[in-house]
Design goal:
With about 130 residues, the protein is mainly alpha-helical. Helix content is about 50%, strand content about 5%. The model has no long low-confidence stretch (mean pLDDT about 90).
Length: about 130
Amino acid sequence: MDARVESKICSFCGEQGSQERRLAGGLGAMICVPCLEHFYDVTRTPERIATQARPVWDEMSDAELLSKLPLILRSAAQNTDFAADWVALIRARGISWAQIGKVLGVTRQAAWERFASNLTPTDTAADGQ
């Protein structure tokens, strides 16, 4: 699993992680320190929370909305990559495709078809192993 900060983006602002722009996160979502500080600041008191009643996109121009779309898709791709890494971790522990499919609410075959192309040949067996 790739844990290098330089290969991740902040799921909130879309900025690339670096040694200067540290990221924290889990389950695929990442947050940079400036965004963390911003959200900490706006959630410290009920009064500050009340000032954030409207979603940020309500205030955006059409151009701003459009400019965010590639960032949203990069964040979605990061989460998809994380899911594939997670399945590789699960398979490396010997957990079966049937178990993976069950927790995803799909058949073992559907789980295998979704994730097997990202795994090594020994992890891709569709026989339930």
